[in-house]
């Protein structure tokens, strides 16, 4: 992977994209472009005297502009200082009541994530929703999170002299996931997964959910011959997470865990780390019982683990070094 700073330096003037008069690539005042809405539906952002703007029933920061999309719609993009953007991200990702160093670690990781998404290939860098990072605008901001962002200002994670690729999720369930196993990408040494003793008290450290068996048959029956009589977990990765769920009917279908989760919903299948999937036929209406560990994909920073690690006295630097071993922090 080419270090982004060297890549942009090599591009020179071609790397400057003017949006609302702001140089997106100014390394001394890093800016990002956030996709607020992929379709404005004819609504125009209303800029206020304080520099914020109203759109979609919320107040946002930055310099808004509309851009045409390939499907003929008009999208709303705002160009904003990354730390002003983080003010509406960090409180949604880590509750402001959490220890200050956990919030600082969240800010470092969220900043690294956002800056790592800057690109010349489209009119925006990150989306304002869960597909990248949730950004709630002005109403989401909180003094504790803003203080943590200020305390970590300019600090990002590096690996091998270039920006690190970072991710985070709510709870890893006791061991963070190997990114290459989850997404079939290039293995990254700092995203191979670490044993995490800190998130044990998290609400979703262990979980169990049930769904009516008929719902599972509706979701997967086309691949199992219209019935579902047995299950098994298959192909564990190096962290112990199964890569597939074998479903037995008149035929056997092995469903990738991510697809299994997508089909039944993330509120039911709360993570990619399944411990058991079984049929409970003791009830009048048979059920599919699903047990697992953690919440989310499990790669990178474990947010609940960071909370309890911080509560034990860890600094933000110690937290990010633990979850991203081998990386280094910029000085800010």
In short:
The chain has helices at 4-11, 82-87, 90-93, 100-116, 143-151, 179-183, 213-224, 257-264, 303-311, 316-323; strands spanning 18-19, 22-23, 31-37, 46-47, 53-55, 58-60, 63-68, 74-81, 126-127, 157-159, 162-163, 168-169, 206-212, 230-236, 242-248, 252-256, 273-280, 287-293, 301-302, 328-329. It has 332 residues and is an alpha+beta fold.
The percentage of residues in β strands lies in: 25-35%
Q: What best-fitting shape do the alpha-carbon axes yield?
A: globular
What is the end-to-end distance? 23 Å
Biggest sheet statistics: 4 strands, mixed
Rounded average pLDDT: 90
Topology as H/E string? Answer: HEEEEEEEEHHHEHEEEHEHEEEHEEEHHE
Radius of gyration: 22 Å
Task: Please give the count of helices.
Answer: 10
Strand order, biggest sheet? 7-8-3-9
Descriptive overview:
With 332 residues, this protein is α+β, with helices and mostly antiparallel strands. It has ten helices and 20 strands. The strands form seven sheets. Strands 7-8-3-9 form a four-stranded mixed beta sheet. It has a three-stranded antiparallel beta sheet with strand order 4-5-6, with no helix packed on it. The chain has a three-stranded antiparallel beta sheet with strand order 11-10-20. Helix 4 packs across helix 5, helix 4 packs antiparallel against helix 9 and helix 4 crosses helix 10. The longest helix is centred in the N-terminal third of the chain and has 17 residues.
């Amino acid at each position: 992977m080419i270090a982004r700073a060297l890549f942009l330096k090599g591009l020179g003037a071609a790397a400057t994209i003017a949006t609302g008069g702001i140089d997106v690539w100014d390394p001394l005042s890093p800016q990002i472009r956030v996709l607020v809405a992929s379709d404005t539906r004819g609504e125009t952002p209303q800029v206020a005297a304080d520099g914020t703007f109203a759109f979609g029933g919320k107040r946002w920061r930055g310099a808004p502009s509309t851009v045409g999309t390939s499907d003929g719609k008009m999208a709303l993009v705002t160009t904003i200082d990354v730390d002003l953007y983080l003010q509406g991200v960090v409180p949604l990702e880590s509750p402001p009541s959490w220890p200050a160093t956990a919030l600082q670690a969240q800010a470092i990781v969220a900043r690294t994530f956002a800056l790592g998404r800057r690109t010349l290939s489209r009119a925006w860098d990150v989306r304002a929703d869960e597909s990248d990072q949730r950004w709630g605008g002005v109403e989401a901001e909180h003094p504790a999170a803003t203080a943590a962002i200020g305390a970590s200002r300019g600090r990002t994670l590096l690996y091998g002299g270039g920006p690190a690729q970072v991710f985070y999720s709510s709870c890893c369930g006791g061991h963070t996931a190997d990114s290459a196993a989850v997404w079939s990408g290039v293995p990254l040494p700092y995203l191979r997964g670490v044993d995490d003793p800190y998130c044990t008290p998290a609400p979703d450290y262990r979980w169990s959910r049930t769904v009516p068996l008929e719902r599972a048959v509706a979701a997967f029956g086309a691949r199992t011959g219209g019935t579902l009589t047995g299950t098994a977990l298959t192909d564990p990765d190096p962290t112990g997470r199964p890569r597939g769920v074998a479903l037995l009917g008149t035929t056997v279908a092995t469903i990738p865990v991510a697809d299994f989760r997508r089909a039944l919903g993330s509120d039911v299948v709360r993570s990619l780390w399944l411990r058991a999937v079984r049929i409970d036929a003791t009830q009048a209406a048979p059920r599919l019982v699903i047990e697992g560990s953690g919440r989310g994909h499990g790669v990178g920073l474990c947010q609940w683990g960071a909370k309890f690690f911080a509560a034990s006295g860890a600094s933000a630097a110690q937290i990010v070094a633990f979850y991203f071993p081998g990386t280094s922090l910029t000085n800010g």
